[in-house]
Design a protein that fits this description.
The complex is a heterodimer of chains A (367) and B (381). With 367 residues, chain A is an alpha/beta fold. Chain A is built from 14 helices and six strands. In chain A, strands 1, 2, 3, 4 and 5 form a five-stranded mixed β-sheet that branches. Chain A starts with a helix and ends with a helix. Chain B has two domains: 232 residues, no CATH class; 103 residues, abc type-2 transporter like domain (abc type-2 transporter like fold), CATH 3.40.1710.10. In chain B, strands 2-1-3-4 form a four-stranded mixed β-sheet, sandwiched between helices. Chain B is elongated, with a radius of gyration of 29 Å. Classes of the chains: A alpha/beta (367), B alpha/beta (381). Chains A and B meet through helix 2, helix 4, helix 5, strand 5 and helix 6 of A and helix 2, helix 4, strand 4, helix 6 and strand 5 of B. Strand 5 of chain A pairs parallel with strand 5 of chain B, so a sheet runs across the interface.
Chain lengths: 367, 381
């Protein structure tokens, strides 16, 4: 009973410090929402509005057909013609064009005679990712140009259907990920900075000599970020499903369990950081030094499968990697409870290990 | 000594004093060394080894309901492809389960009627592919690869039966500046932009907020220092710190990651120095606006670091964004830095690219410094 009372007192005090300043209140709500909105448009690996230069030395029907097909594709905005590659060079250097498609003379003649032909595609390697995706688009379109004449399999067909995201809308993939990504920073930062702030102002020693035990202090520091995370996640959930029309196919209880477990894991990590540092600046940098690897090695921007095995192994300790799998499973896939429980359990393990470590570090400093 | 030159002399002395104080604070704090050296190196390693945008091997499941030779041949074609790692699945349900639990990216189902339909007249043999569409790019890769294997499979059969396939147009792709289209080559210059933003913006965002919080700003205001001296004196040490860490990054990139430097070191240094003007300016503006370090850190993270990651063309291509967002990226210094660094490293000293970008950076920087100067009233309201 006493414990609960003391715990509530610490939580109350933490919430007051966190929410007293109107500017701090503002930073907890408005910027995350703005980020959700802006990044929903920015974070796409789809390549759109492509400007591709065309050098048509062939001037035959096939070259015209290819140009026509490219123009018909929604991914391309402008297809300016140039007399030669040299003429396109300036625009290419200034990144006005992602590449140049060169159709040699004799292309149409070769194809009419039934000989295979080649077109050249020069791409900007500075933007190698967008360039590679553009290469795929162009290859698909160009090879379709010759496809009418050949039918490889007269009585067989490949029926491809997309599950979970039938129209391959990139936003459906990105929004659930952003929910995890944006919660990561807030939970980690708040905990890391709140202890460091007290250290810096000298009030942490007062807390340590109060009747509260190290466990109570740690829990008192852990719970407020959890409350913030739940509030934010509810906002995100409403926006993502109502405004962006992304389906939510899983269980709402599992969603909140995931948010809580994830926030606890992040707060635990934050607590660990704060037990090692003395000033807010150090805490901020320490938290940040973890934030970046967490977000990069989570599968947010690049698939985990692309990483070398030892990094894939490390991602097991990354709370965001588990959170993203949970979010994908909940929003789009309605994954089985068994696979979700596994991720949840791993998040709780991280939370437990980090909190215990932090408590040990705190009590070592306490008399 | 004339009065004006004496005034100038004391102006410099005062400036030096602020700088010295700030520089001492930076050097004495062990965390600044972590920031200047350890953090940049960690990032470079992460980007160099951990992050690859080049799709490698995709796990798929194959369900074979047909025991015929044809079905086995097609399954073998999938297994032998270097794009796929094939996991066998007992039946359709098991395959769908694997897809739902995110263990595989696609399920290929060869139905029981595959071979009979293929050999009969007037029927169409179907192979079903269920693709995890959640991540559209991977889904498109999988579409493309499976379709290619499928048409190769039938083209090979047609050749065996002696019929001739129609003419084919090949696309020969060549990448300028980055012949192997290695994503590492464009990610490393991009990650340097992020590191510089981190140093320039995030660190300075704490500078004045810290004095507010500790109450030492009053002491600073009581000195004869002008606003300009406070601003310059507080940013210059961070400028030097950032340049040192840039040097560490460049050396690592060239020696360890074998990144080519096709432009000159001079251009690289100039671009970096120019970039720090808006980056430091932004940090200062945050710092004079927010009263607590925690709020300043959050704002710095959200307006400095996150845009440098997401809106600078580093991970996500700017050209693919909607028009209003492309317009917004013009206010983000990292955007200009990113293309400038990619150009200096991979293409060379293309001044036609670098000069306009540097001018934009200076313009954005002037706005940030101007606003901070205006916001930093010498009074304690």
């Amino acid at each position: 009973m006493r414990t609960l009372q003391r715990l509530l007192a610490i939580i109350r005090k933490e919430l007051i410090t966190m929410l007293r300043d109107p500017r701090a209140r503002f930073t907890l709500i408005v910027p995350p929402l703005m980020q959700l909105f802006i990044f929903s448009f920015a974070a796409t690996m789809e390549v759109k509005n492509i400007d591709l230069g065309i050098v048509d030395l062939d001037r035959g029907p096939y070259a015209a057909d290819i140009a026509q097909r490219l123009r018909g594709s929604p991914s391309f905005t402008a297809l300016p013609h140039y007399a030669s590659v040299a003429a396109a060079r300036g625009d290419f250097e200034r990144e006005r064009l992602i590449g140049v498609l060169v159709m040699q003379s004799g292309l149409s003649a070769d194809l009419t005679a039934g000989r295979p032909a080649t077109v050249q595609l020069l791409l900007d390697g500075r933007r190698s990712n967008a360039a590679q995706i553009t290469a795929q688009y162009v290859t698909l379109i160009v090879s379709a140009a010759g496809a009418e004449q050949r039918s490889a399999a007269p009585n067989a067909e490949l029926v491809i259907s997309n599950w979970f995201n039938p129209n391959l809308d990139y936003r459906w993939y990105m929004m659930p990920n952003l929910v995890g990504m944006l919660s990561l920073g807030v939970a980690l930062m708040i905990t890391a900075l709140s202890v460091a702030r007290e250290r810096e102002l000298g009030t942490f020693d007062q807390t340590l000599v109060s009747p509260a035990t190290p466990v109570e202090i740690a829990l008192g520091k852990l719970l407020p970020p959890l409350i913030v995370a739940v509030v934010q996640a509810t906002l995100y959930l409403l926006i993502v499903t109502l405004l962006y029309q992304v389906p939510f196919r899983g269980n709402l209880l599992v969603f909140y369990a995931a948010v809580l477990a994830f926030a606890a894991a992040c707060a635990g990590v934050g607590l660990c950081v704060s037990s090692l540092v003395h000033t807010q600046q150090q805490a901020f940098l320490g938290a940040f030094a973890l934030l970046l690897p967490f977000s990069l090695l989570s599968g947010f921007a690049t698939p985990v499968e692309n990483m070398p095995w030892w990094l894939q192994f490390i991602t097991a300790a990354n709370p965001l990697a588990h959170m993203l799998r949970l979010m994908q499973g909940l929003f789009l896939k309605d994954a089985s409870l068994a696979s979700m429980t596994r991720e949840l359990a791993q998040l709780l393990e991280i939370a437990l290990c980090t909190t215990v470590a932090a408590v040990l570090l705190f009590s070592r400093r306490a008399p | 000594m004339s009065a004006s030159s004496r005034r100038a002399h004391s102006w410099w002395q005062q400036l030096r004093a602020v700088m010295l104080k700030e520089a001492k604070q930076v050097v004495r704090d062990p965390s600044s060394w972590i920031i200047a050296v350890v953090l940049p190196l960690t990032f470079l390693f992460l980007f160099g080894y951990g992050i690859s945008l080049d799709t490698t091997v995709v796990r798929i499941a194959v369900v074979r309901e047909d025991a015929s030779r044809d079905a086995a041949d097609f399954a073998a074609a999938l297994t032998h492809s270097r794009w796929f790692l094939v996991v066998p699945a007992a039946d359709r349900r098991a395959g769908e389960r694997l897809l739902q639990d995110q263990s595989v990216k696609a399920v290929v189902i060869i139905p029981a009627q595959f071979a009979p339909f293929l050999h009969a007249q007037g029927t169409t043999a179907q192979v079903q592919v269920l693709v995890d569409g959640a991540e559209p790019n991977t889904a498109n890769f999988v579409h493309g690869y499976i379709s290619a294997i499928w048409s190769d499979f039938f083209a090979a059969r047609a050749r065996q039966q002696g019929s001739r396939a129609g003419p084919q147009v090949d696309v020969a792709v060549r990448y300028w500046y980055n012949a192997n289209a290695e994503s590492r080559w464009f990610l490393i210059p991009g990650s340097m932009t992020v590191i510089m933003t981190l140093l320039g913006t995030l660190l300075t965002s704490l500078v004045i907020a810290r004095e507010w919080e500790r109450g030492t700003l009053e002491a600073l205001y009581a000195t004869p220092l002008t606003r300009g001296q406070i601003l310059i004196g507080k940013t210059l040490p961070y400028f030097l710190l950032a340049m040192v860490s840039m040097l560490v990054c460049v050396i690592t990139a060239l020696l360890l990651f074998q990144l080519p430097l096709r432009g000159s070191l001079f251009a690289l240094g100039l671009v970096s120095a120019v970039f720090l003007v808006p980056a430091l300016g932004q940090g200062l503006l945050i710092s004079v606006t927010m009263r607590s370090q925690m709020a300043a850190a959050q704002l710095g993270l959200m307006t400095g670091f996150m845009p440098a990651m997401m809106l600078s063309g580093f991970l996500f291509d700017i050209h693919s964004m909607p028009a209003w967002l492309r317009l917004l990226t013009f206010a983000i210094p990292a955007r200009y830095m990113n293309i400038s660094l990619q150009t200096v490293f991979l293409a060379g000293d293309l001044w036609a690219v670098l000069v306009p970008n540097m001018l934009f950076m200076l313009a954005v920087g002037a706005v940030f410094f101007g606003l901070s100067w205006w916001r930093l009233h010498k009074r304690l309201d």
